[in-house]
C-alpha cells in the first residue's frame, strides 16, 4: 500500500484523488495525522499499515518565510526525507527547480550543477543529497511552479483569479521564466512511475513539469484573459517586486528523463485550460 504524506497540500490532495481514479490502494496523512519530522511515528505508521512505498508530498514550501525559519525548513525538507528513506521502503520524493541558480538559458538536465539561491532551495537540495547518499531505492522528482484549481489552495492561479475579479490592472513579473505545472498532472506522473515500479530502482533524479515555458506575466495573462479580459496585465521586472528570497530567473527543467518511462507531459496552456473544464 502506498502512503501519501502531506495529503492536505496541493500535490498530496491531487495524488489522493488520482489514486482513486487509477485504483491504487493507498493511505494518506496530512500534517495533523503524521508529522514527517517525527521518525518514530513515521516508522510505526509504515509498519502497522503495511506500506510498501512512501510518496512524500509534505514540504516546507513558504519560500520567503524560510529565510527566517531556517531550522524548520531544513527539518521538513532535509531531515525528514532522510528519516523516511531509512524506514526500509522505497521513497518517491518531490523536489524543486529552486535547487538551480537560474543563470542558464537552456533547460536544466537532471545532472546539471545545482546552486540554490535561497534557504528553501538549499534545504530542498540538502534533502536530495541525503536521499542520493542513503542507498535507498526510490525517485527524486523535481518540479516547478505547481498550482491546483482547488479553491482552498494558495497559489498563483487562485491569486490571479482573485485579483482579476477585483482590480482593473495587475502587475506581474516578466523576467522569470519557468513552466507552470498542474498538481493533478504531476500526481498522475508520480503514480504512473509507481505503477511501473520505477521506485524500486536505485534512487535517481527525474524532472516533471508541464511542457513549454513562459514568464509569470505570460501565465497571468493566460489566466486573466479567460477570467476577465478587461483587466489589464502589466509586465514588470523582478527588481520592481522585491521578495525576501531570491528566485531563479530561469528555471525550465529538461523533461528528457521522462522518456525512459513513456511519460509525455502536456503543454502548460492545455493543462491550464483543463482546469476550466472540470
Ligand atoms: N508549490 C510549488 O510551486 C512547488 C514548486 C516546486 C516544487 N514544489 C515541491 O512540490 C511538493 C508539493 O508542494 P505543494 O505545492 O503541494 O506544497 P503545499 O501545498 O505547501 O503542501 C505541502 C504540505 O506539506 C505539509 N507539511 C509541512 N510540514 C509538514 C510536516 N512536518 N509533516 C507533514 N506534513 C507537513 C503542509 O501542511 P501545512 O499546510 O499544515 O503546513 C502542506 O499540507 C513539495 O515537495 C514542494 O517542495 C512545489
Describe this entry's structure for a reader.
The longest helix is centred in the first third of the chain and has 16 residues, at 70-85. α1 (10-22) packs across α7. α1 links the parallel β1 (2-5) and β2 (26-29). The two termini are 28 Å apart. The chain has nine helices and twelve strands. It has helices at residues 10-22, 39-48, 63-66, 70-85, 119-132, 156-166, 183-195, 216-227, 268-274; strands spanning 2-5, 26-29, 53-56, 91-96, 138-143, 146-147, 169-173, 177-178, 181-182, 204-207, 214-215, 232-236. It has a domain at 2-147 and 181-211 and 252-266: Rossmann fold (3-Layer(aba) Sandwich). It is an alpha/beta fold. The structure holds NADP nicotinamide-adenine-dinucleotide phosphate (NAP).
Based on CA inertia axes, which overall geometry fits? Answer: globular
Question: What's the N-to-C terminus distance?
Answer: 28 Å
- Portion in strands: 15-25%
Going across the biggest sheet, name each strand in turn.
2-1-3-4-5-10
Query: Low-confidence parts lasting 5 or more residues at pLDDT below 50?
Result: none
Determine the number of helices (DSSP H or I, runs of at least 4 residues). 9
Tally of extended strands?
12
Protein name: dTDP-4-dehydrorhamnose reductase
Family: Belongs to the dTDP-4-dehydrorhamnose reductase family.
Keywords: NADP, Oxidoreductase
GO molecular function: dTDP-4-dehydrorhamnose reductase activity
